[in-house]
Amino acid sequence: MDLRDSASDTRFRRALRAWLETEVPRHGAPPPPGDWAARRRYDTDWQRKLHVAGFAGLSWPEEYGGRGAALSEQLIFYEETARAGAPYIGANFIGMMHGGPTLIAEGTPEQKAFHLPAILRGEYVWCQGFSEPGAGSDLAALQTRALREGDFYVVEGHKIWSTRAHVADYCELLVRTDPDASKHGGLSWLILPMGEPGVEVRPLETLAGDSHFCEIFLNGVRVPVGNRVGEENDGWRVANVTLRIERGTAFAQHVISMRTQLQGIATLARKREGAWADPALRGRLGALEARVGALWRLTQMGVSEARRTGGAALAGSAVKLHYSELYQEIGELGLQLLGRGALCREDVAGLPSAEMLHDYLWSLQFTISGGTSQVQRNIIGERVLGLPREPRWEPR
Ligand SMILES: Cc1cc2nc3c(=O)[nH]c(=O)nc-3n(C[C@H](O)[C@H](O)[C@H](O)COP(=O)(O)OP(=O)(O)OC[C@H]3O[C@@H](n4cnc5c(N)ncnc54)[C@H](O)[C@@H]3O)c2cc1C
Q: Which residue, judged by its Cα, is nearest atom 44 of ligand 1?
């Protein structure tokens, strides 16, 4: 692909940049961490503004409220929103990056017509109910049952680590519809309305001190059969579409924001006595900057591949692996520069230690969420490089 802006790209970039210059300051600062109701409002209001201005769902079909725009515009959108420090999609993450794209690929016309415009307008927030206490990396081991009763599935089970489930309206739910089929063969992908009787959400506290993810208990929840995405018992294939989208392009805006994070660290190094004079530190900053640049190119490749194939990119696992590990290395460098300031959750001696410590603690989850680094290495080895499969073992 040609990465230079065409004439229409340049017009799009200018219009978006001008809009962001006015709207980002007007939208104000995000609410304090931990206030999830306020955060939902802040994020969905931003989503609505993007939609009204014609900047929501750039790659989504026009008939469902998207822009049907060229790939280059989507990449420009990521660059310009990161440059402007625009709010991240946040509470809309699962809807915009998982649920919506999965419906575009696999949903019925009714599902698309109802959900896609509502997600783009910021009306509905989605969460993901895939993992269970006994099913994380080995997702197909999940036990949540959905028993068919006429036009409904009756769902019983327990999901865990569901990000922002406490502020969500819908959940992409992976369930077992045929307990007698093979492990991967008896699953289905359902749209669960979170307000249904029998859905109980319990927030969990994280290392960073807030509750951004939750357990979901499902006791006799009735989900219409019309809410199934894909065929019954074909849920493993649909779930893989969802996961590949998450791993491939969902972090694009974050990748660009890493540059800003590195600039913050360079500014800090200039303030810390003796730090900037250290050639090893400057070398490390330079190497990290080069790796962020390479990761952005890999992300562009993934977005391009996803556009070309109409699905999600296999390169996604490589993007996810590098992104999550690089993010942690950048965070570690920040903490080293802070020195003892890194021991405090508040700003110390005029240093931005609160934010940098929070960034680092937050970064620890990325090598686990969305599939651990070990699992990404297995996927790259087996499915991308064609290496022999890892030896199978069963827990005793
Ligand atoms: C912040 C955060 C947000 C999350 N959000 C969601 C969400 O919204 N919805 C959702 O459904 N889930 C979510 N998850 C769950 C996430 O997908 C799982 O944590 C992840 O898949 C790992 O599963 P596990 O925690 O059960 O660990 P396990 O699968 O038990 O893994 C434990 C360790 O064993 C290693 N391991 C396992 N299998 C292999 C193997 N075959 N080869 C080599 N090593 C292996 C793993 O790499 C890991 O180090 C979230 C997790 C986090 C941390």
A: 374
169-182: per-residue pLDDT in tens?
A: 999 999 999 999 99
Q: How far apart are CA 57 and CA 68, in angstroms?
A: 8
Strands 145-149 and 228-229: unpaired
H/E element holding 24? helix 7-27
- Give yes or no for residue 211 CB within 6 A of ligand 1: no
Residue with the nearest Cα to atom 50 of ligand 1?
A: 369
DSSP-based three-state secondary structure for 200: strand
**pLDDT score recorded for residue 34:** 83
- The predicted pLDDT at position 350 comes to 77
Query: Which domains are delineated in the chain?
Result: 7-88 (1.10.540.10), 126-233 (2.40.110.10), 251-384 (1.20.140.10)
What confidence tier does 312 reach under pLDDT thresholds 50, 70, 90? low
The full DSSP string for 40-101 is HHHHHHHHHHHHHHT-S-TTS-GGGT-----HHHHHHHHHHHHHTTPPP-GGGHHIIIIIHH
The answer to whether residues 233 and 186 touch, using CB atoms and an 8 Å cutoff, is yes
Site of tokens 């649909």: 238
- For 68: left if phi > 0, alpha if psi spans -120 to 50, otherwise beta; the answer is left
CA distance 127 to 136: 16
53 or 79, which is more confident? 53
Q: For the segment 259-286, what is each residue's pLDDT rounded down to a tens digit?
A: 888 988 999 899 888 889 999 999 999 9
Helix pair angle (235-249, 279-309), 10° resolution: 140
Q: Is 246 known to be catalytic?
A: yes
Helices (H) and strands (E) in the chain, counts: 12, 8
Tracing tokens 């068919």 back to the chain, one arrives at 148
